Amino acid sequence: MPTAARVHLAHAVVQHLAGTAGVELLHLKGPAVSDGLRDPLRTSSDVDVLVRPSHLARLIHVLEAHGWERRTDFATGSPFAHAANWWHDNWGWVDVHVAWPGARIPAETVFDTLAAPRSTKAIAHVECPVPDRTGQRLVLLLHAARSPGTSDKDWAWDRATDDEKAAVRALAAELDAQVALAGALGELHLHTDDPDHQLWLHFSEGNGDRISEWRARLSATRGTRARLRLALDLARVNRDHLRLELGREPTRGDVRRRQRERLRRATDDLRSRLR
Amino acid sequence: MTAYRIAADVAWVSREELDHGTEPTAYLTRLPDGPALALSGSACLVWVSIRDGGTVPEIAQRVGELADVSTENVRADVERLLADLAEAGVVSVEPAGGVRR
I need a labelling partner for A235 at 20 to 30 A (CA). Which of A26, A34, A87, A164 fits? Predict the structure, then answer.
């Protein structure tokens, strides 16, 4: 089956399961995006959903009862600890997000706000809840802020009218996501005093330098305890990613080797900064 | 007379909706556990012809129009495929005045 067909059916399957379990979801990106907000030639390889955080446990239970296997954890699935991945032999990947990086109000309120318009889109002829067009634009732009180089900004922002852009900025203000939005729009110079400025500068530049990433993420983390926890996480090898890469459970030797590689990479980054 | 329509618990997408592919193909599954099926060529024409429901003669007429052949030429094949799809549980069988799978 072509990937695009599988992804469409997978959205429908996930929505059906969520519906039977009383779980509220919003479908994001890929086929969930309304016409005109995304390059029609661009295809998705996985399903992205934002779950109401208080419904996460129920979603996990129903997914796993129907053959989905968790492959990464929330702590290791992304630098923002906001998503985890499940795999199904028939339906492929689903990325379950409990928050959308960039929005700084509580995740439950973010969900309330994005779900409030009660918009839906038929995916594989199944009605799936989605943010409205303004919410979709913001979601795509916040994603573009941490994954630059896609056509998302062109479609979600550059082609928008002034009124549509004003609505996106208003929604970003409501979600306290102005700094991340500025990262997508090339306006970070307006937020140099914000604690998250360095973080979004790092992602918007997309230079892949781990030292920059560590410094940016530490500077955006509030509280000594949280910073300490983040520093420990950053220093630790991500076993979930290593398992995916190797296609098997990593051994202690694998982890040690990866730790040495990380150290070497960090040293190389440091050397390139000192040159 | 018996009527057929796509079952309520079926998700499906056609090649036309995805990439305007030249070969008519529909991909479908019963929710939530499948399996996935692919209907290509004339089978896909039958599938899209039952999306609004209909009897065998009505569906055969739509398929005939889509394929530009006479209804009589396709009626037996349509009837056979509908029986198979009903057995797979992906179409609902609708006797006069009610619906049953």
Answer: A87
